[in-house]
Design goal:
Helix content: over 70%
Structural class: mainly alpha
Distance between the termini: 22 Å
Number of domains: 1
Number of strands: 0
Radius of gyration: 16 Å
Strand content: under 5%
């Protein structure tokens, strides 16, 4: 499994992908102990039809906490958020959860674009610009998270 410590944003996206995979192909879990454990967790947490594992929620919460810390202490980080925020607000307004955090919106955007690419659907130039900004933001958050964990 992807390491949360190594790249927390990729870890969250990976868990979301596994959740969708197990919802679509639950029988495939029989072929892999790790998948079987995740499917069991999904059953226990009542998220077979939808939602996210507590593992993913906890990782997202850690990333959101770091995001809040950086907003207070890092001017360059605030500048990136101010730049991307209008696009994130538009994205959030088009979801069933318009109050989601900016971090979750970035992850949701990247996940949706990944799904579009898998389906070979077109992605607009405007979306690609926002994806680049969201990726930059998540890369910075993940690196800072990694650095903080390494310092412990």
């Amino acid at each position: 499994m992807k390491s949360k410590r190594e790249n927390i944003a990729e870890y969250i996206l990976y868990l979301w992908q596994l959740e969708d995979y197990l919802r679509a192909f639950p029988e495939k879990a029989q072929e892999n102990t790790e998948l079987m454990e995740l499917l069991d967790m999904m059953h226990q947490e009542g998220i077979i039809a939808g939602g996210h594992l507590q593992l993913a929620k906890n990782a997202l919460s850690e990333l959101e906490d770091l995001h809040e810390e950086l907003l207070e202490s890092e001017a360059p980080y605030r500048a990136v958020i101010l730049h991307i925020e209008p696009a994130l607000n538009i994205l959030k307004s088009k979801t069933d959860r318009p109050t989601m955090s900016d971090v979750e919106a970035c992850l949701t955007l990247l996940y949706q674009v990944m799904m579009l690419r898998l389906k070979q659907q077109p992605i607009s130039d405007e979306t690609n610009v926002v994806v680049k900004d969201a990726t930059q933001l998540l890369r910075f958050l993940s690196k800072t998270y990694y650095d903080n964990q390494a310092a412990l």
